[in-house]
Amino acid sequence: MHPYDHARSSAKIHGGCWSDYFSIHAWFDASKAVQCRFTHRALRHHVEGVAEAVSIFGPSVINSNGVKVATEQLGMQHLEEDCTYPPEATVWLIDFDPPGWLPTSEPDSAELANASAARFGGDPGAYFALHAWFLETRNWSDGPEHLAFRHHAFGIFEAEARFSPVIALDGGKAVPTRVVAEHHVQQVLGRVPPANDFLRRIKGERWMLQATSPRKLGLD
User: Fold this and answer.
1) Residues 165 and 176 sit within 8 Å (Cβ to Cβ)
2) How many CB atoms are closer than 10 A to CB 165?
3) Could you tell me the residue ranges of all domains in the chain?
4) pLDDT along the chain (220 residues), means of 10
5) What pLDDT does residue 209 have?
6) Which of 3, 9, 94, 208 has its CA 20 to 30 A from that of 76?
């Protein structure tokens, strides 16, 4: 479904109007800009993606009726309407065909933060959160295939939106977040691939495209 329809569904459930919820539903579907095929959902349509939405949008939104609605509840609604159930991230990678250029080992966040400080200046602590965010997906799936979720060009722009355009350093200096993020992906993969280099290797399954319709939800 379109984010507008998800938002109308939220308004039907919780009250208010569709515009109260549109930004959250549009965030889940923004990965369609990378690939206009249902496997784009692998980047955000999972329980871990709902947790990321909570981090970005806060624990709740106040609709135009003054009612507080949990962001987690809205995210789960989106997943159920698109996938029939809220999958965990690792489910998207069942029978994933890994590219030969995936690394056999990865640096940790502290090593990458030190490397960023050496390259761009400042204290390693200024960079640690960014590197930890990229590598958080280690907790989502076993093996190097977890890199499919954030280690690509789309993930670099995600990082910029998540952490602001620049990373502030001591002395009033700053470095563009996107530059640091590109350096991170380059260090881990040896390249900066488009997200589609991963998404096209996901084995399509029926549950991935079983989105409901506005008519079934009583919206039309």
Assistant:
1) yes
2) 10
3) 3-90+203-209, 109-199
4) 96 97 98 93 98 97 97 98 95 96 95 97 97 97 95 98 96 96 98 97 91 89
5) 85
6) 94
CA distances (Å), origin 105, targets 112, 117, 144, 186, 205 = 13, 22, 8, 14, 29
**Angle at the Cα of 142 from the Cα atoms of 134 and 90, rounded to 5 degrees:** 80
Distance of alpha carbon 140 from alpha carbon 133, whole angstroms: 12
Task: Please provide the DSSP assignment of the chain as one string.
Answer: --HHHHHHHHHHHH-S-GGGTHHHHHHHHGGGGT-SSGGGGGGTSSHHHHHHHHHHH-SEEE-TTS-EEEHHHHHHHHHHHHHSS---GGGGGTT----TTS-SS---HHHHHHHHHHHH-S-THHHHHHHHHHHGGGGTSSSGGGGGGTSSHHHHHHHHHHH-SEEE-GGG-EEEHHHHHHHHHHHHHSS---THHHHTTSPP-GGGG----TTTTT--
Tokens 């459930």 label which residue? 13
pTM of the model: 0.94
